[in-house]
Each structure stands twice: as C-alpha cells, then as structure tokens.
Amino acid sequence: MNILVITREFPPYVAGGISYHLKYLYSKIEEIGHDVTILAGRPRAIEKQSSVEVPQTIDVEWVDYFSMSGYHLQYPTALAKKLRDFNIGEYDIALTHTEIPYSLGIPTIHKVHDAKHIERSFSRERMGSTSKMLDSALAKTRRWVTQRALDCADALIFNSDLTRSVWENQYDISVPSNTIYNGVDREIFYPREVEKEDFILFVGDSPRKGFPKVKSFAENSPYPVYVVGDVDDSQHLHSLGRLSQDELAQYYSSAVATIHPAKFEAFGNVILESLACGTPVVVSDRCGAAEIIDDSCGEVTTNLSAGIEAVRDLDSEGCLQTAKRYSWAEVANDTTSFLKRMRSCSK
Fold first, then answer.
1. Residue of 211, 234, 189, 205 lying closest to 304 (CA atoms)
2. Rounded to whole angstroms, how far apart are CA atoms 215 and 221?
3. pLDDT digits (tens, 9 = 90+) for 166-222
4. Which GO-annotated molecular functions does the record name (predicted)?
5. CATH code of the region 200-324
6. For the domain 2-183+328-346, what is the CATH code?
7. pTM of the prediction?
C-alpha cells in the first residue's frame, strides 16, 4: 500500500510521546514493504532533537505552524494549504494521528492516542486564571474539530478499550473501530545485568498518573520508592529526575515492581517497558495497559501494598512473554491488516 500519514508532530521535532510511537510504527510498516509519506507538523517553538534518529527511507514533508498551543486549529489550517498543491490521489489510504475536520478525499483511518477531554481536567488544576480562561474559550472549538474529524473518518483505531469507552461517552461515533495496543522497543527495554534491589519504581510526577497516591503509599511503605520525574526528595521518596531510556531500563530491571496507580492513562507505555525488562507491575484499571495484564506478570488494583506483595515473587519470564506479544512489528502487522480491510470496504 501507498500510505499517507498525517500528524501534528514527528521526530526530530518532538513535542510528546506520539512522536516516538510514530517513529517505531512507520519504520516497521516500511520494513514489511509498504510506502509511507508523512505530512508532519513542525511547530516553530519546538527545537530539533538531533539525538532522535529517523530512518532515511521515510519520506517526510513538513507542515509549519506556530505552536502546539491550539494545534487543533493551527495544524489543520496549515495542512489545508499544503494539500492545495499535493497529489493526494496517488495514495491508497490516509492514517491520521491528529484530528482533521474535513474530508481528505481518500479512505481515511484516524488513530486515537489519548483523551484530551479527560487529561485536560487534570492539567487545568495547574493552570493560572488567565490560562484557564483561554482553555475554556478553546474548549468548544476542540469539541467541534474532534467531532468533525470523527464524522469524516472511515474507521478508527484506539490504543486501548479504555480509550475507546471514554471517547464513545463523549462523542458520536458511527464508524467501525479496532483496538491495537502500543508496542515496546525490546532493543532498548530488556533485562539488564544488574542486581535486584528492594525498591519500588514509579515513572511520572503528575496527579493524573497517580503521584499523590504514590506519595501517600511511600510514607508507610516497607520499600523505598524511587520516582522518575521532577519531585522533591523526602524521607520516603527518592527523586531520580529525568533519565535516558538506557538509564530507565536499568532501574526497571533492578526494581521489585513498577507501580502505576493512574487516575487516567489512555495506554501507559511504562507498563510494557517494565515488563520487557522482566519486572512485574501494579496498575490501576484506569490505565489502558491494564488490559494486557494477567497474574503471570502483574496485578490490576488500586491497593498498592497488596498489589506489590502479590507480584514481588513472580517469575520474570511471565513478564517477558507478555512483552514479546507487543513488539512494534506486531503493531505494524495489525495496523496494516486493518488498513487493508477498511480500504477494501471503501471500494
């Protein structure tokens, strides 16, 4: 297939985790014989990250816009200008990773990575009054753009059933959909030759990811709690700051367990990363990645103490076997199979 990809960001102009997702996914899709062209947004305020390598075989055409703030309006507008002189008819199908509120004229699949309408309720807690006013003013435009994009799509891909359910509760969805879980790069995340230590690992520093619950748990935990994120050190919490992926893999490999008591997480890549390093997880059912967990590799619960005791003696092999089922090669195969089915239905 000749696939057109549309996204508000792409490496090396990285604004969020979606960039890494797209890099891994489309590298594998090209490897299995498909042609990929990416119309990628390039916000002026985002600096180039030269450390992020992108395969030279991927054809990227940049769509410049001002900033990620209000991208739901800026990027589709800039894209529309780009498409005026772009031969979209040469592509078999489009896969969008940003809501585009108009028809592209070819079969279009939209992939949903998050649930901004829920995530924004947490981020608003940290906003000042001016930012809150601006956010409220933009809220109606976000909803209109999103609903229009859903109406224009021929099918949807969600990264978890949890994500699908919260979108179905918020928007009118009348097209076919499929759940395809995220993948993990096992060339980075694999068991390191380090000693197991009696500490619990948490990756994140926000209320949405469950930091307040982790902080409360740490006060009476028999284990020290290490936090990957910008938090203050205390008697019970040890801040590791920001880590490279290689450093993170070493901490995953050393930990008794990784905990993720999220209040909402559309997927939660930390779950797969920990499993790929052989370390079990304790995760809430408000995290999409909880859907891939069974008692061989983790526990789905909000009771962190009980969850850790349930998983601390699990064999790492159960974790590794679960992670192997979610390679990026598998994600690429599942994605292209769905694209082919939807393309044939649209003929």
1. 211
2. 10
3. 999 999 999 999 999 999 999 999 999 998 899 999 999 999 999 999 999 999 999
4. glycosyltransferase activity
5. 3.40.50.2000
6. 3.40.50.2000
7. 0.94
